[in-house]
Amino acid sequence: EIHIKEPIEKEVNPRLLPGELLLCEASTVYKYIQEDGSNRGTYGKLVCTNFKISFLDDDSASDDNEPQFKNKVVGENDITLQCVDQIYGVYDEKKKLLTGQLRKYPEKLIIYCKDLRVFNFCLRFTKEEEVKRIVSGIVHHSQTPKLLKRLFLFSYASAAPNNTDGRNQTVMFETLEDWRDELERTKGNVKYKAVTTNEGYRVSEKLPLYFVVPICISEESILKYEGRGIPIWCWSCHNGAALLKMSAFPKEQDDSTSQMQKAFLDGIYKTISKPPYELLKMDDLSSSLPSLQDIQTAYTRFKQLFLIDNSTDFWATDVKWFSLLESTNWLEIIRRVLKKAIEVAECLEVQHTNVLLIEESATDLCCVISSLVQVMMDSYSRTKSGFQSLIQKEWVIGGHCFLDRCNHLHKSEKEEAPVFLLLLNCVWQLVQQYPPAFEFTETYLTVLSDSLYVPIFSTFFFNSQHQRDTNKSGESLKTQSGPFRFLTVWDWSVQFDPKAQAFLNNPLYAEKPKPDKSQRKTTRFKHQRQLSLPLTQAKPSTKRGFFREETDHLIKNILGKRIGKFINSSDEPPNNFREFYDSWHSKPVDYHGLLLPRIDGPEIRVWSQRYLRWIPEAQLHGGGTIATAAKILDLMEEVQSLQVKVDEEHSQAVSGDVHSVPMLRNSARLSSLFPFALLQRQSVKPALPTSTWKDLEDEDDLVKRDDECVDLSGDML
User: Where is the Myotubularin phosphatase domain (predicted)?
Assistant: First the structure.
């Protein structure tokens, strides 16, 4: 059965943002509905601007059937140029990757997005000239290297009115006062000081204008090696122990330079390590955690599991889910990163020891570990404003190279690595294990990951504070008000109206006073194995790759112990770690105290909302976390209306400014894809005897068993 909407006759024009220009367009483009391979779809116009690729059909002109969770900047049929991952053309039923100049133009266009959407466009009914323009335009503007000033960020900032929401409570860490306030909040101002040595970026362009160092560090020391070899403060624990990070010296140096640097480091260590009063543990993350290249390789494999072209592909991979998931090693990397954060927390909390994280630039894995430790140990970082301030402090001002790691300019794939996405995956593990401890939801984390590719915010589009400051003057742009101000992603009102923003806030957040500790048991949910590796899969892989420290001796030790899933990167015995880990998990949870993630076996799971939200076959009708949220929000709405009535009875009626929550009536009509996608038609296993199903037909009649196969995607959520 083929459902085809006739080509639209009325003109549908794209909604353009300030500074957005239409570059090319093609009419009579047919967009397939990614569902069951039946060629169902709709006709429309495909356009490319300097901001996005957009498909416009006759529904685009009406506001009637708008989704409840609508993004005001990027629509459901919009793809920002930075969100395009790969583009394939189909020639005589064969897929070919499209890059650079094209000699022949395809009859079908497949666009894979970094947020894991897949768009299929048929160009057979489009005029040849329009096909050439739109295909070459899309490939050129989304895949070829570009200059920084060519990003839409600058066009938008120069054309958009500067009326940002002033109620943003996020600490931006752009002033000396912000750093001093943070020192005071964490009681770190006794041993540490905020310095102005880098004003005018005279020390280094990689360092922020202001940062915090131990009181005993002199200005001359900071200036000597452009900030390298200097312990920079991240956070102080309640017992006075501090988390520090340091940019290491290059390893390949001549002997004399190396000796001088070693002497310099020895002097620095002596000033901050004074046993038995001040203990210091150093941890070189470049040797104890996977490399950036390993992380990139693992994620590239992992995301392929979710870039599904059609229903047949989904069911073909579904039966091999466990082995495919394990072979990516992505979950193992998340486990190792969480384990490292627990080790650091143990040093700070139990041993009262300062921890110095060392990395070549101190702006990648240092950011991941320091952020995770603060989320685990500081309840302020688990509030929405606190988490946003943490990202500002450790990542944006801390100098993480977002431009290079996200490859926004398509300059070099060698520098690309999903480091920030790795952090969000780790934080999600904590959010789904301890929901009442977080003021924000998994939807918030998903939206934040999407915002990495929306170039109207400066937050994730610079490599350093220096790069942003030197490019915000707008000399080449005709701005009437002089230097323009970029938008920050933390102003959520730019992307969502208040009703949609309610999905970002956790209605079950356990605010102080602390909840009754006996409640811990009720928050432990059953683990859905289809989104995690089985316990037997947690053994270290025998393949060479991420685990460079593996030896035969280590493998024998690991396989003989219950903790076989941990890859011990340090030379120290794991006794302290295991004792700390088991001891904490044997006690009730204090949602405002220390939180340790569970990392055994299948506890590490796939972030289902982010990775499965566009796959109709993986949905649960009327189920998933959204069904629970629907009931909770209905109850909240009822309680609020009762509260208003009570207040009115006592002549203390509120002014009507009741905090709005989204209406989620009839939750059975929703599915687990909500709020990102609407309810899709129920998917069934293909009747076609594909080779995969042929192989399985004689094994326990697996094909016909609903509980093991048809509903596997449901269990996955």
Answer: 173-611
Helix (H, G, I), strand (E, B) or coil at 84: strand
Computed from CA positions of residues 649, 653, 659, 660, in that sequence, does the dihedral angle turn out positive or negative? positive
Q: Which tokens hold the place of 302?
A: 């992992």
Higher pLDDT, 612 or 572: 612
What pLDDT is stored for residue 375 in this prediction? 98
* Structural domain ending residue among the three candidates 504, 527, 555: 504
Phi, psi (deg, nearest 5) at residue 245: -135, 155
Inter-axis angle of helices 311-318 and 321-328, to 10 degrees?
Answer: 80
What mean pLDDT is predicted for residues 373-381? Answer: 98
| Max avg pLDDT among 339-343, 411-415, 651-655 | 339-343
Which residue would you say has higher pLDDT here, 458 or 539? Answer: 458
Lowest mean pLDDT among 51-60, 384-393, 448-457: 51-60
Domain boundary among 439, 469, 504: 504
Q: State pLDDT tens for residues 275-323.
A: 878 899 999 999 999 999 999 999 999 999 999 888 888 888 888 999 9
Phi, psi of 359 (to 5 degrees): -155, 160
Strands 354-359, 242-247: parallel, antiparallel or unpaired by DSSP? parallel
Pick from 268, 247, 264: which is nearest to 256 by CA? Answer: 264
Burial degree of 638 (CB within 10 A; 0-12, 13-18, 19+): exposed
Residue 185 counted as domain residue: yes
Residue 155 lies in a domain: no
User: What span, in angstroms and rounded, lies between the C-alpha atoms of 346 and 229?
Assistant: 25
**Beta strand extents in 317-364 (DSSP E only):** 354-359
Which residues, 6 or more positions from 414, have their beta carbon under 8 angstroms from its beta carbon?
none
Q: Are 308 and 713 in contact (CB under 8 A)?
A: no
* pTM for the whole structure: 0.84
- Return the pLDDT at 627: 72
- Assigned domain for 398 exists: yes
Domain assignment of residue 28, given as a range: 22-144
Residue 230 pLDDT > 60, yes or no? Answer: yes
Under a CB-based contact definition with an 8 Å cutoff, are residues 505 and 492 in contact?
Answer: no
Residue 569 has pLDDT above 50, yes or no: no
| 244: three-class secondary structure by DSSP | strand
Within this chain, do residues 92 and 185 fall inside the same structural domain, yes or no?
no
What's the rounded Cα separation, in Å, for the pair 84 and 423? Answer: 22
Sign of CA dihedral 151, 154, 155, 161: positive
216 and 258 within one domain: yes
**Structural domains in the chain (count):** 2
Residue for token pair 């590719």: 453
Over residues 454-473, mean pLDDT: 94
Please give the Cα distance from 56 to 40 (Å, whole number): 17
Residue 651 is predicted with a pLDDT of: 61
Would you mind telling me the total number of residues written for the chain in this entry? 717
What angle (nearest 5°) sits at the alpha carbon of residue 627, between those of residues 622 and 632? 150
What is the Cα–Cα distance from 271 to 287, expressed in whole angstroms? 25
By three-state DSSP, how is residue 399 classified?
coil
- Identify the pLDDT of residue 635: 86
Same domain, residue pair 131 and 195: no
Q: Which helix (H) or strand (E) holds 656?
A: none
Determine the Cα–Cα distance for residues 685 and 274; give it in Å rounded to an integer: 66
Q: Does 180 share its domain with 126?
A: no
Specify the DSSP element, H or E, that contains 45: strand 41-49
Please give the Cα distance from 314 to 616 (Å, whole number): 10
H helix or E strand, kind and range, residue 157? helix 152-159
- In the chain, the percentage of residues whose pLDDT exceeds 90 is 61
In 3D, which of 117, 142, 135 has the Cα closest to residue 26? 135
Task: Name the DSSP letter for residue 522.
Answer: G
Mean pLDDT of 361-386: 97
